[in-house]
């Protein structure tokens, strides 16, 4: 559901709010925002549209109303739910645990707040995607998956640095050998988004196609940096899984 190629303003967002918290300025920034408060309308939307984010007013909606929505998410079963609150309103004491919401947001809803929430959700769910890939490879061995991630987060940045220095110094044999090792690691772990540029760079070096080496290296570096940016999210989630 979450991919880095989709801009925040292109997300499909459902806002369930009894108050008028969605400004005209916000809907211009996020044209795919849909607002609803009638339960039947909401259930129909959930059954027909795949949303990227659901924002729900926890103070103005009863827990029974929230329960019905939660139990009828359908194709939106994995869609993050954000609890909306006003600072001056009394919050349901058991709302978070009851719904297991992903985050909370104080009203009014602004573009800056939405951008931040979407970025957090994207990081969390892409991290979960990486975890699921490695758990599949390790037959759901959480400790082994954690060990492999630790090695990847340690070795990949070093290998990228070694490749960069080798290319800059014209040491293409060293660059090819290190790229081959990196390619082997990410291929084994199923990290396709890194594997593709690694394989392309390795082929360029093998075929002495040096004109394209810098461009392919930059793409590999970008993909690797993107992956390592999920270090904290991945390891935190794995720690919770292991201690559960």
How does this structure look, described?
This protein is α/β, with parallel strands linked by helices and 244 residues long. Strand 1, helix 1 and strand 2 (33-36) form a beta-alpha-beta unit. The chain has two domains: 8-130, Rossmann fold (3-Layer(aba) Sandwich); 139-243, Four Helix Bundle (Hemerythrin (Met), subunit A) (Up-down Bundle), CATH 1.20.120. It has helices at 24-29, 39-48, 63-70, 95-99, 111-137, 142-168, 172-189, 192-206, 213-228, 231-243; strands at 13-16, 33-36, 53-57, 81-85, 103-106. The protein has a five-stranded parallel β-sheet. The model is unreliable at 1-6 (pLDDT under 50). The protein starts with 12 loop residues before the first strand and ends with a helix. Helix 6 (142-168) runs antiparallel to helix 7 and helix 6 packs antiparallel against helix 10.
Q: Topology of this protein?
A:
Elements lengths: L12 E4 L7 H6 L3 E4 L2 H10 L4 E5 L5 H8 L10 E5 L9 H5 L3 E4 L4 H27 L4 H27 L3 H18 L2 H15 L6 H16 L2 H13 L1
Parallel strand pairs: 1-2, 1-3, 3-4, 4-5
> What's the domain count?
2
Strand content: 5-15%
Q: How many extended strands?
A: 5
The low-pLDDT segments are 1-6
Can you give the helix content as a percent range? Answer: 55-70%
Can you tell me the CATH superfamily of the largest domain? Response regulator
Overall pLDDT: 84
Task: Give the radius of gyration.
Answer: 22 Å
| Backbone shape | elongated
Structural class, by secondary structure, is alpha/beta
Oligomer: single chain
Q: Determine the number of helices (DSSP H or I, runs of at least 4 residues).
A: 10
Question: How far do the termini sit from each other?
Answer: 26 Å
Q: Give the CATH architecture of the largest domain.
A: 3-Layer(aba) Sandwich
Q: Mind summarizing the main beta sheet?
A: 5 strands, parallel
Order of helices and strands: EHEHEHEHEHHHHHH
What CATH calls the topology of the largest domain is: Rossmann fold
Q: Given this structure, which CATH class of the largest domain is correct?
A: Alpha Beta
Q: Write out the strand line-up for the largest beta sheet, numbering strands in chain order.
A: 2-1-3-4-5
